[in-house]
Amino acid sequence: MEIHRYEKIWTVAALLIIVGFIATVTYGTVGAGVKMVDDSGGTVDPGSLDDTEFSDPGVTQVGEDEYEVHVVARQFLFQPGTSEPIRVPANSEVTFYITSADVVHGFELVGTNVNTMVIPGQVAEVTVRFDEPGEYGIVCHEYCGGGHHTMAGQLVVVPEDEYNPEDS
Ligand code: CUA
Q: Which of 9, 23, 34, 109 is 20 to 30 A from 126, alpha carbon to alpha carbon?
């Protein structure tokens, strides 16, 4: 059977494109650590967050350099984050637990690799290290209604010796 030259070229090109796509997905999973939102953070009843650990969201110290931050996303703010910044000390490992009280939101810490969907009923769990003091914007990147574009917040990594848990 004879295959035309152009037919061969296009067949090879199509195969290379497929291999390329598989390679990018593999890199995203293994290299860049991109993951689907899974159930490792657990589930909550979005209608009764007051009966859960999200009743008083905020920063909790759980180890010498380890902190947990519970965040509730709702139309159109992060609690905490929007009306007051989330404050954590530098040189810390911070695990965020984020859930939604209403619709699907997003939680992206601009400039870090923290970027997750926030799904009602589901708790998104993300851990990140902050070695240096700094300020990070928080944005909602899932369209969640008329005020979506205003849904933002701030995280401040304060120098270790200036950190006061009372401020959070
Ligand atoms: Cu919340 Cu967009």
A: 23
